[in-house]
């Protein structure tokens, strides 16, 4: 995820490629390529298209280009996604294939991953050819038409059926240079994925930050990835062998072997699909003079037992584990190989089963909000919200995915042991004051005139204003294109603060658990009509729907603009809880940022930097303490 805190430091406003790579190197041995994802799940909250989201990354395209360069200087290739379903946001003038290939050339990227695509279509290859910029094309799901293997040089191995007997990758079988990356994003036990990858001599997608939900690789599987990766890197030519032979005869039941011949050596990969250790004879090979044999996985030389025209190799393969044997001409054995053996001996010193496979959700913490000065009476434009005992705070996130990891998705409120999509919690809420309406353009202009506030990162700041002011007739429209930091600056100047999620919801519901400020039945006449166009029309005036008041008289709470509330952070992700739902949602795909008009629903909006975070459908209102 582009917003991963190991990749970008919002405090010092810089990309931290070295920090990101050092972390994955330490935990599972590093990687060969990264897929940088700046779009989903935030795309669709406004009409920014996939190109706009990339350009909104810190530093714009120049900053992205420098980040890509940093990866490539460290030997790591860089991919970006094809959001083929992004057909409802801001229109582009060129065909998507031509535009994306040109974008990859502009930032120096190496590949494109086709999100939801069953094969990246040939127009992308034609676009590469037309400008002479080769890009690796990699569909997410599969390749529908095997003819596409001609230009889809890579693919994700998604939805593989894991039987006891390992299956064979049809794409690699047809074209041994085709590189599959097995992908199983929500899985915790990665044994099947890694064994099928190693058996086929293909790659693995170490996907942990899944749309801001952390499915971390546990110690056991990180160790397995580190060992497999080390073998792959030590013998890079083996895995595209034109004479690859899956299901080479094995000598132990439950152990399956693949053979990868290359000039001067042959590599054998083994996977033990049984839950018991296998020892003794594992391989039977034709005798050839002048060969030596090495248990690469365990880092030692093997002494072949010759019987007639055959040799037998004895070595262990642990339960649900891996093995690798190298057959090499004696004349090619060198110091580099001895170093590989020493490294593998160290990496494989502990059995995988002795390492922990315990998964725990990443803990989140709420960003603390200071109380304001206490007001004896409601400040101008604010409504008094009485205190309440045992308010039943019920909340439900509208995130599209994540149910496969129920203890990791959603918000970890301060009283919860782990994140959750839906929660109910009884709580006391102190009395406070809330802005009757969201902050308007006119009010925000007054703040700017008084303070001359300018954010350090101005990209997308007040994007719909011209020449330092809002458009004519927009006085009473809610201010948008303001980041969480911009909203906090305004609140501090006004002697206020942003509301907690539960304060915002209570001010809208009262104590009767209603779904909407006016009651439990949705009434489309009490909020703006939805905008589904590719050009956003702008929000409605905050006072346009006078019959939509909450029980306490708070107005314009739902259906106009999303409203900033709390910020949460874990080790890898920052996000904000958005309430109220926005008036805009593009057509064309269910993958766009979902709506949440009901008071008890919330949107989880991933944060990276103000340039990315500002949106044409996100505004705010303030509260003050009583």
TrEMBL record:
Residues 420-623 form the Sulfatase-modifying factor enzyme-like domain. Gene3D superfamilies: paralog of FGE (formylglycine-generating enzyme). It holds the Pfam family FGE-sulfatase. InterPro entries: CTDL_fold, Sulfatase_Mod_Factor_Kinase, SUMF_dom, SUMF_sf. One of its GO terms (molecular function) is formylglycine-generating oxidase activity. This is Sulfatase-modifying factor protein. The lineage of its organism: Bacteria, Pseudomonadati, Bacteroidota, Chitinophagia, Chitinophagales.
């Amino acid at each position: 995820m582009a917003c991963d805190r190991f990749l970008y430091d919002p405090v010092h406003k810089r990309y931290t490629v070295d920090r990101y790579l050092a972390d994955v190197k330490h935990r599972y041995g590093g990687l060969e390529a990264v897929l940088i994802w700046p779009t989903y799940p935030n795309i669709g909250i406004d009409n920014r298209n996939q190109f706009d989201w990339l350009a909104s990354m810190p530093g714009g395209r120049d900053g992205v280009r420098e980040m890509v360069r940093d990866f490539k200087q460290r030997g790591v290739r860089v991919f970006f996604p094809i959001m083929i379903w992004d057909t409802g946001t801001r229109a582009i003038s060129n065909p998507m294939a031509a535009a994306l290939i040109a974008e990859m050339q502009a930032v120096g990227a190496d590949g494109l991953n086709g999100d939801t695509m069953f094969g990246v279509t040939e127009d992308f290859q034609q676009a590469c050819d037309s400008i002479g910029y080769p890009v690796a094309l990699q569909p997410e799901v599969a390749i529908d038409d095997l003819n596409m293997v001609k230009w889809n040089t890579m693919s994700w191995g998604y939805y593989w059926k894991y039987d006891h007997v390992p299956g064979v990758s049809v794409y690699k079988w047809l074209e041994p240079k085709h590189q599959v990356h097995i992908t199983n994003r929500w899985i915790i036990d990665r044994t099947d994925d890694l064994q099928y990858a190693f058996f086929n001599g293909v790659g693995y997608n170490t996907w942990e930050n899944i749309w801001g939900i952390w499915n971390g690789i546990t110690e056991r599987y990180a160790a397995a990835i580190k060992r497999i990766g080390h073998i792959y890197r030590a013998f890079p030519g083996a895995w595209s062998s034109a004479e690859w032979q899956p299901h080479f005869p094995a000598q132990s039941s439950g152990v399956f072997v693949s053979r990868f011949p290359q000039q001067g050596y042959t590599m054998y990969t083994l996977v033990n699909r049984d839950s018991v250790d296998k020892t003794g004879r594992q391989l039977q090979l034709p005798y050839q003079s002048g060969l030596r044999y090495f248990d690469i996985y365990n880092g030692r030389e093997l002494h072949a037992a010759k019987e007639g025209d055959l040799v037998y190799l004895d070595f262990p393969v642990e339960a649900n584990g891996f093995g690798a044997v190298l057959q090499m001409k004696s004349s090619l054995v060198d110091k580099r190989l001895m170093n590989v053996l020493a490294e593998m001996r160290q990496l494989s010193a502990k059995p995988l089963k002795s390492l922990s496979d315990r998964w725990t959700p990443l803990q989140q913490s709420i960003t603390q909000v200071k109380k304001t000065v206490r007001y004896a009476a409601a400040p101008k434009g604010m409504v008094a919200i009485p205190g309440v005992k045992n308010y039943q705070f019920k909340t439900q996130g509208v995130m599209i995915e994540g149910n496969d990891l129920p203890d990791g998705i959603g918000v970890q409120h301060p009283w919860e042991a782990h994140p959750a999509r839906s929660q109910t919690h009884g709580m006391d809420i102190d009395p406070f004051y809330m802005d009757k309406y969201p902050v308007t353009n006119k009010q925000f202009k007054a703040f700017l005139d008084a303070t001359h506030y300018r954010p350090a990162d101005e990209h997308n700041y007040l994007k719909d204003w011209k020449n330092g002011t809002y458009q004519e007739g927009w006085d009473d429209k809610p201010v948008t294109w303001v980041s969480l930091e911009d909203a906090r600056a305004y609140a501090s100047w006004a002697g206020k603060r942003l509301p907690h999620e539960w304060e915002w919801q209570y001010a809208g519901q009262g104590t009767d658990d209603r779904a909407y400020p006016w009651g439990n039945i949705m009434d489309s006449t009490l909020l703006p009509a939805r905008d589904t166009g590719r050009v956003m029309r702008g929000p409605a005036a905050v006072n346009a729907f006078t019959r939509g008041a909450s029980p306490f008289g708070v107005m314009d709470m739902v259906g106009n603009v999303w409203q900033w509330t709390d910020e949460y952070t874990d080790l890898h992700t920052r996000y904000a809880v958005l309430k109220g739902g926005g008036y805009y949602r593009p057509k064309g795909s269910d993958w766009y940022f979902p709506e949440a008009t009901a008071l008890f629903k919330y949107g989880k909006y991933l944060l990276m930097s103000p340039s990315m975070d500002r949106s044409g459908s996100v505004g705010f209102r303030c509260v003050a303490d009583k």
